[in-house]
UniProtKB/TrEMBL annotation:
Keywords: Dioxygenase, Iron, Metal-binding, Oxidoreductase. This is Alpha-ketoglutarate-dependent dioxygenase AlkB (EC). The lineage of its organism: Bacteria, Bacillati, Actinomycetota, Actinomycetes, Kitasatosporales. Pfam families: 2OG-FeII_Oxy_2 (PF13532). It is an enzyme of class 1 (oxidoreductase). It comes from Streptomyces globisporus. The keyword Iron applies. Its cofactor is Fe(2+). InterPro entries: Alkb, AlkB-like, AlkB-like_sf, Oxoglu/Fe-dep_dioxygenase_dom. Its EC number is 1.14.11.33.
Amino acid sequence: MEQRAELVVACRQWAQGPVPLRHTVLPGGGVMSVRTVCLGWHWQPYRYARTADDVNGARVAAFPDWLGDLGRAAVAEAYGDEDAAQAFAPDTALINFYDDTARMGMHQDKEERSSAPVVSLSIGARCVFRFGNTEGRGQPYTDVELASGDLFVFGGPSRFAFHGVPKVYTGTADPAAGLRVGRLNLTLRETGMASGDA
Ligand code: MD3
Ligand code: FE
């Protein structure tokens, strides 16, 4: 099976639990249109914990070694630097599912206590990824189309840039990957949490 189809199979399994794929509820009461499930550490706005206290209280599924290997291979290829790749030790994955109407507003990812890069993999429908600046949500930003199979490494100053997904294109799914509709994005990250932290 193609690697992206294998990833879709794994994501379907993780979506079932122990913490199910769900719409994240924000502290102000807003509900994200994107659905998310986490591995290794659970992200809830705005902290990481081992258990999903905003969902069902369960401990999240483990972050598998093979996903760390995939992340290191991505850093090796992007940076051409085997030492940087070996130093990358992601301990969480956020898996986002977008239906055709889901969006993600402009934000920074700053709950991680680490400046390690973030590896992002996209599978399924094409979308507009808006890559901004480190100062604020507004201009200047660059719109990039992400398609199934695209992988990005966000390191250096890009790690702290505002970014979002303003649009998913309908009718662009990737049935060969096992997704009839919608888009999956996996981000591999270092939380900077100690393994003993709650
Ligand atoms: C740049 N996800 O999960 S992936 C997110 O397509 C998120 O689901 C989007 O933004 C998605 O936080 C964009 C690309 C991405 C992810 C994390 C980053 C870019 C990033 C963190 C820092 C800088
Ligand atoms: Fe983000």
